Amino acid sequence: MPRINSPSELEKLRQGILSDRDPEKPCITLCSGSACHATGSGDVAASIEAEIEKQGLSAELDLRKTGCHGFCERGPIIVNHPEESCYFQIKPEDAPEIVSQAVKEKGIVERLLYTDPNTDEKIINESEIPFYKNQERLVFGSNGSIDPKSIDDYLAIGGYSALEKALSQMTPEQVLEEVKKSNLRGRGGGGFPAGRKWEESRNAPGDIKYVIVNADEGDPGAYMDRSLLEGNPHSVLEGLMIGAYAIGSHEGYIYVRQEYPLAVKNLAIALTQAEEYGFLGKNILGSDFNFNIIVHKGAGAFVCGESSALMTALEGRAGEPRPKYIHTAVKGVWDNPSVLNNVETWANVPLIINKGADWFTKIGTEKSKGTKIFSLVGKITNTGLVEVPMGMTLRDIIYEIGGGIPGGKKFKAVQTGGPSGGCIPENLLDLEVGFDELSKAGSMMGSGGMIVMDEDICMVDVARYFIDFLTDESCGKCVPCREGLRQMLKVLTNITEGKGNEGDIELLEELSEVAKEASLCALGTSAPNPFLSTVRYFRDEYEAHIKEKRCPALSCKELIAYHIDPDKCQACMICARKCPADAVDGGKKKIHIINQEKCTKCGTCFEVCPSRFSAVQKISGESVPPPIAEEKRIITRKSKEK
Amino acid sequence: MSDILVRIDGKEVEASEGMTVLEAAQSAGISIPTLCHHEKLEPFGGCRLCIVEVQVGDWMKRVVSCVYLVEKNLVVRTRSEMIDKIRKMILELQLAHAPDSPELLDLAKEYGADKDRFDKEASFCIHCGLCVRYCDEVKKKNAVGFVDRGIRKEISFIPEIAAKECWDCKECFPLCPTEALQAAFVLTKSLISPPPSREPTSEE
Q1: Topology (CATH) of A460-547
Q2: Contacting residues of B for A301, CB less than 8 Å apart
Q3: Cβ atoms A206, A276 nearer than 8 A
Q4: b vs e for A585-594, b when ≥16 Cβ sit within 10 Å of the residue's Cβ?
Q5: Residue A610: is the preceding peptide bond cis (ω within 30°)?
Q6: Which of A123, B4, B21, B130 is deepest in the core (most CB within 10 A)?
Q7: If you average pLDDT over residues A278-299, what whole number do you get?
Q8: What is the pLDDT of residues B147-200, one digit of tens each?
Q9: How does pLDDT run across A107-147, given as a tens digit for each residue?
């Protein structure tokens, strides 16, 4: 492919690609993101390819392996174009039917359609499914329609037109002004206005300046950035190029986790293609703008998501934050001005340049503009990635898009913002999501993790879990974080094990205050949040653990016991057979009793006891009732029907 | 170099550009406690004990004085209720590692820190990094370094380098604020461990 040397050549190329494509030609798009890959989309792709071959349809039907469609709960996902019929949980054996329907019969494979759980109605089109219908997928939307390994696919949907516009019609100052006007705020955690950061770097002295993509996404349960890089890498590259042009940078870095092999692979392919087309290198699109990008693979440290730690790691040293009180935008990598933005922030830039800041600021709330991608996980019916306009309420995200809590359970809290975010309780469900709104509620936007919790989740244990994560991920450089977290984890573990003492909450509060005030970096200053937000909204749970040695959620192993209600036990032997510890005593027609000495509290008996009996109970904070007398254990049934 | 006038604890102090608040304070005989600071070494900002309050205009913030640079009209308070509270907690956390360190005990007396507030930890090391940074920045040998991260982080001598360099140096020992023995112990342990054999062992 020859280099593109001017905007007109780019447009000619784009027209060429489009005219070679027939929008009416049947095409099967198959999600090949990491989540669907894990549920078998690789095998599905192979069987569809084989089926196309077998049915002799190679000329009439395309298969496109795309990035993540978002509805990961129901993967692997297929959308047949041009009808846009949408199929879920595809297995390799579904291939013949899908292929033949796609071309020959132009029909629908009814059994693979989405069924609305409320109305039992089958829904054909993606856009009609509640999960998608209520989203606004500006950044993430193209993921499902393009092959991330094909730059032509990206060009076909208008890719690199924002770069072309910036280079040929705008000065760097104008680009900067547009981004500032859009009030685009960092999607990686802090929510700092991207335009201000860019301006600071642009005005900072120095000839060498860097732009960096923070793709060190490390929050448990969050995979927004991963899916963007895997599914639409060029959008991130294009944003980075535009940023570099605005700032006056000629070298960019992408700091991506090594644990994201598909993202690394697709990025490498995208970079090679962008170089071949001349979007990277010297005199890009015939302008005098030169720019190159280097991919740096991170070695798996959560703290390297922090800007100065990431830059230290880029320089080849241990990823520890710097203590300096000077912005990295002024003195960053090798003390040169360096603009670091997260994957999603960069991916927003081409949209802003193409459609304008006025368009962008119409979406969202007063202080949080645009959309945000959330990774909606945990106890939620529709697990997946969702993109919504800022200002949508948590309730709408969880119930309208997420489909609510599965299994008839009650909602308890939603944890947002990653490990150093916080838990938001039910009475705040009408909170509109936005940077400042979430912070005010004691949580944060973070990079967009959203973990939904139901009534079975113990909030003290949640705090312990996240503090444990952060203790493990602390770099260990400063005392308030390293030693403070060490002690917080000990106290929280004790509380969940029934060894809590009067005064523990106050001690945790004191440790939190010191970590917040005195830690070196944002990991430390935000590390107490899991405790602070849970104690703010669920203090009674802490007190129950400490004072009554009771876990209200019946979750903490050390504080619960399993007991078989003799009035309900039908002596069916199921729990006795399944118990791995041989702790259930009983026989046919003999009421079962759990030997508390032998019980390992694995919960198997509780799970296997038929729901029509519900004889196995969890109890906490009270002693286990004594076993009933031997002679009363024999069940005599009058008739078989009860 | 132009002089910068700052006010520390009500006292006017003349400082020069590029000076840290800690240096300015020390030059005026105002003492700020430190554990990881050493005049020959780059600021580390790890122990956080030298935290102070600075006022720039109407905005008060807490910063560590070993890193924060002086600026015009800066007002510094080296003690306050909050600063003392933070220092007390930092000392208590460190005393869990080194309950017998004279340096820590002196500071504990000043800030009312209880050396037995937290259960004792196995290692004396308080991760001030003085040995590691001295060996790197002054001696340029890197015979001792940090390994691992977070609460598992510890100092470790690299046997190959230590065997050559350490016997006639040992300049890091007296820098250790907790127990010089810690460094000596780790050093000895490194040196007595058998050298990695070039021959594969029979199990391999």
Answers
A1: de novo design (two linked rop proteins) (1.20.1440)
A2: 149
A3: no
A4: bbeeebbbbb
A5: no
A6: B21
A7: 95
A8: 899 999 988 888 888 888 888 888 888 898 886 556 666 667 666 654 554 444
A9: 788 899 999 887 889 999 988 999 999 999 999 999 989 99
Alpha helix (H) residue ranges in A356-406: 357-361, 394-395
Structural domain boundaries in chain A: 18-128, 151-361, 371-457, 460-547, 557-633
Is B68 in contact with A325 (Cβ distance < 8 A)? yes
**Domain A371-457 fold:** Ubiquitin-like (UB roll) (3.10.20)
Whether the pLDDT of residue A41 is over 70: the answer is yes
CA distance linking residue A292 with residue A497, whole number of Å:
54
At the topology level, CATH places domain A557-633 in: Alpha-Beta Plaits (3.30.70)
The two structure tokens encoding residue A464: 């312990």
CATH superfamily of A151-361: NADH-ubiquinone oxidoreductase 51kDa subunit (3.40.50.11540)
The answer to whether B149 contacts A475, with C-beta atoms less than 8 Å apart, is: yes
A–B interface: beta-carbon pairs under 8 A: 98
From chain B, pick out residues whose CB is under 8 angstroms from the CB of A514: 85-86, 89-90
Q: Which of B43, B82, B151 sits opposite A482 (nearest CB)?
A: B151
**Contacts B92 to A, Cβ<8 Å:** none
A chain contacts of residue B46, beta-carbon cutoff 8 Å: 323, 477-479, 520
Question: Across the interface, do A487 and B93 touch by the CB < 8 Å criterion?
Answer: yes
Domain A18-128, classified CATH 3.40.30.10, yes or no? yes
Does this model's pTM top 0.90? My answer is: yes
Residues in contact with B70: Cβ distance below 8 Å, sequence separation at least 6, in sequence order: B4, B6, B15, B17, B19, B20, B21, B24
